[in-house]
Amino acid sequence: MSWDWQFYCNDTATGEAVAGCFGPGGKEQTYLQWMLHAWGWTLTVSLLALLLALVVGSLIGIIRTAPNKWLARFGEAWTELFRNIPLLVQVFLWYHVLPSLFPVLREAVSSSVLVVFALGFFTSARIGEQVKAGIQTLPRGQRYAGQAMGMTLPQTYRFVLLPMAFRIVIPPLTSESMNIVKNSAVAFAVSIPELAQFAQQASEETSHFEEIFIPVTLLYFVSAFAINRVAKFIEARVRIPGTVGAK
């Protein structure tokens, strides 16, 4: 079997070879440019969804351990709702159902933003579970000690519980962060021009299945591995000697 990688320098519209694989001024789009553009969309959707998931998931994890039963029940309901509905179904709900119920979403919000919300909220339920577990791992006396020193409950979370809990849950949060890159592939279902859509369309146009899916797989790996390395660096910097994971 002989592989032909030259097609990456072909224009996607005419099929003609473009010198240097990049047209003058970027006017022509080669398959290489298309793939890099799709990678950019994958990273954009993944990172925005990750940021949303970390913020919302942390809040959900916190309120699930709060003494207020109504807040705890809301957190439990959020987790059960977004964790038990398949991600692809959630994407279709955000893209087709909610804009029909709320026309302002169709007029003012792009499809990529809706996918970010779907992917972010789906992952927030999983992150909320991790944050809750991290807080519950801590000795109950730490909360009592903070309040005995005159701290309010929010201050106890801010200065006593969360700094330790987040250190404990960095490894599982790393896995969720890597998964969000993989899960971003569902965006192709609503025509977001990311890597999965590129791989599907370009392979159908060129019939170079191996030459397309091998680089796409490597780009997914590089993206997830980069997140892993960043998380490992953060974990090493915030590690407290004598605690879990310390060396």
Question: Describe it for me?
Answer:
With 247 residues, this protein is mainly α. The chain contains ten helices and no strands. The chain has helices spanning 31-63, 69-84, 87-101, 103-108, 111-137, 140-148, 153-168, 170-183, 195-206, 209-238.
Brief description of this entry?
The protein contains ten helices and no strands. It has helices spanning 31-63, 69-84, 87-101, 103-108, 111-137, 140-148, 153-168, 170-183, 195-206, 209-238.
Features:
10 helices; mainly alpha; 247 residues
Write the layout of secondary structure elements.
Layout: H1 31-63, H2 69-84, H3 87-101, H4 103-108, H5 111-137, H6 140-148, H7 153-168, H8 170-183, H9 195-206, H10 209-238
Helix pairs in contact: 1-5, 1-8, 1-9, 2-5, 3-5, 5-7, 5-8, 6-7, 8-10, 9-10
- Output the structural class: mainly alpha
General shape: elongated
Mean pLDDT: 89
Low-confidence stretches: none
What is the count of helical runs? 10
Strand content: under 5%
Number of strands: 0
Q: How many strands, what sense, and barrel or not for the largest sheet?
A: none
Percent of residues in helices: over 70%
Rg from alpha-carbon coordinates: 22 Å
Distance between the amino and carboxyl termini: 49 Å
Order of helices and strands: HHHHHHHHHH
